[in-house]
Amino acid sequence: MAASSQPSSDAVGVDLRAVRKWYGPVQAVRDVSLAIRPGEIVSLLGPSGCGKTTTLRMIAGLEHPDAGEIRIGGALVNAVAPWKRNIGMVFQNYALFPHMSVAENVAFGLAMRREGRAAIDAKVAAAMAQVRLAPLADRRPSQLSGGQRQRVALARAIVTRPSVLLLDEPLAALDRKLREQMQVEIKQLQREVGITTVFVTHDQEEALTLSDRIVVMEEGRVVQTGTPSEVYERPRSRFVSDFIGFTNAVRGRVEAVEAGTATVAMGSGQTIRVPAEADIAPAQAVDLVVRPEKVEVDPPEAARPGRTLIAGTLRHSVYTGAVTYHHVDIGGGETLIAMTPNGDGHAGPPALGSPVTLGVRPENMLVFARAG
């Protein structure tokens, strides 16, 4: 499928303004405001119960907001019925009709709109070609693999040329390898048709792979919005850093802050200097956070210049094929993990039990005030 970075001429934006939703005494969505640009693919990411699916269902019209506005293409749709919003939706369980063939499933929305047979046949053929299912037109869903059923659901959602495509954890039932394949295919298809897309997932890798922007939600609120690299590299809170990818966290206490740099004493007694945000103050308990791939592990005599250096002892290494994870005891009951690629020509790690020096570029060490 050929990729295109341009939205289709009929792509529209989605705008949520201070949207709220209660279920009895429980507030599921809390003042969510979000502007999604025409042709953009945005992932709503967060743990179960964070409000992401409720937000998606309100965009679709399957739930009604208790406060705030939802606009599609600039038009207020709070009181507009789901079938009048020109939305395409793919559910986690695909929701295919088992008694219908693949072609009949794809044609269903067009038939409901009472389009002519010739137009339906042409649009179904085009949609099925886009998802590479043309040879399977006469099969029933029970005769398809999980990935094929997913493609049928996508074809059915796009065949009506909706203004907005909504995907509610559509890959959750697939195995890892097929899920990764479908992530790439959905991204390519979205680029090809240029449709504004909102994707709900609790899987960080899906969000990083698919999204132009990621919206991280916690307890009904949006806690960070940004490109995949912004959210991964510069999380704004400990919650986001923990939820997006694996991270190291070491406890410490701030000894001094000067000119945007904090001097932090760790439990081992080692003191390091790292960049600090404005809310970090002397005597404050903090967490030092760094991604394993940002940590270098070397013998003490080979420590690299320009790094924040932390002394430790290599306790064990875990080989995973492409990379090795080195677990380093830095004292005070704390461990830092360094991830190194297993490339040709690289020297092996120091022996287990030997002293090592961990190096981190200062800008890659994040400091967050510790909760509680």
UniProtKB/TrEMBL annotation:
It is found in: Cell inner membrane. InterPro entries: AAA+_ATPase, ABC_SmlMolc_Importer, ABC_transporter-like_ATP-bd, ABC_transporter-like_CS, Mo/tungstate-bd_C_term_dom, NA-bd_OB-fold, P-loop_NTPase, PotA-like. GO terms for cellular component: ATP-binding cassette (ABC) transporter complex. Residues 14-244 form the ABC transporter domain. GO terms for molecular function: ABC-type polyamine transporter activity; ATP binding; ATP hydrolysis activity. Belongs to the ABC transporter superfamily. Spermidine/putrescine importer (TC 3.A.1.11.1) family. It is a peripheral membrane protein. The lineage of its organism: Bacteria, Pseudomonadati, Pseudomonadota, Alphaproteobacteria, Hyphomicrobiales. This is Spermidine/putrescine import ATP-binding protein PotA. Gene3D superfamilies: 2.40.50.100, Nucleic acid-binding proteins (2.40.50.140), P-loop containing nucleotide triphosphate hydrolases (3.40.50.300). Its main location: membrane. Keywords: ATP-binding, Cell membrane, Membrane, Nucleotide-binding, Translocase, Transport. The gene is potA. It comes from Methylobacterium oryzihabitans. SMART domains: AAA. Its EC number is 7.6.2.11. The complex is composed of two ATP-binding proteins (PotA), two transmembrane proteins (PotB and PotC) and a solute-binding protein (PotD). It comes from the Bacteria. The keyword Transmembrane does not apply. Signal peptide: none annotated. It catalyses: ATP + H2O + polyamine-[polyamine-binding protein]Side 1 = ADP + phosphate + polyamineSide 2 + [polyamine-binding protein]Side 1. The keyword ATP-binding applies. It is an enzyme of class 7 (translocase). Part of the ABC transporter complex PotABCD involved in spermidine/putrescine import. Responsible for energy coupling to the transport system.
